[in-house]
Predict the structure.
Amino acid sequence: MSGPPADDTSAPLASLSPDALERMRTIGLRLDRAGRFWHDGHEVTHPRLHAALLRWLDVAADGRAIVRLDPVRYAYVEVEAEHLRAVTARWDGDRCLVTWDDGTEEELAYGQLVVGPDHALLVPARGGRLRGRIAGAAYQTVTTRIEERAADHFVLVAVGAEHPLRA
């Protein structure tokens, strides 16, 4: 017998029309600004499913937010604000490490900090693929190194440089 390997899950998708595939990818998934997932109006409350959805967050080639299982299998997700929220931040010498709510830790993108309308810090996450929000306790940690240089001109002092905050 021949045919696709037993683990080739993308084979059935190849037989769908582009319109049918797009309909399948639109599943009614939404991520609110507090980091809660909703499916068809019901909150996703299972902790491991919630954690998996955060890990699977990505952006498609067309810029739409998705949850991605692999290059072929993904579904669209409506994102109200930022993709990820900082859970903690810590200084390691003059480097700032942020832990996102998907469990990943990465060094802050210092030169790309933007002050949001509610004074939260907005910054690229996951190497620039997603949008991150730093508020709460993580914000308190990061802002210990923010200094005012002139009226309404603030900088983050880190990694041997001053990084201007943009509004």
Remarks:
- DSSP finds four helices and 15 strands in the chain.
- Helices lie at 11-14, 18-25, 47-56, 136-142.
- Residues 88 and 138 are 5 Å apart (CA to CA).
- The two ends are 63 Å apart (CA to CA).
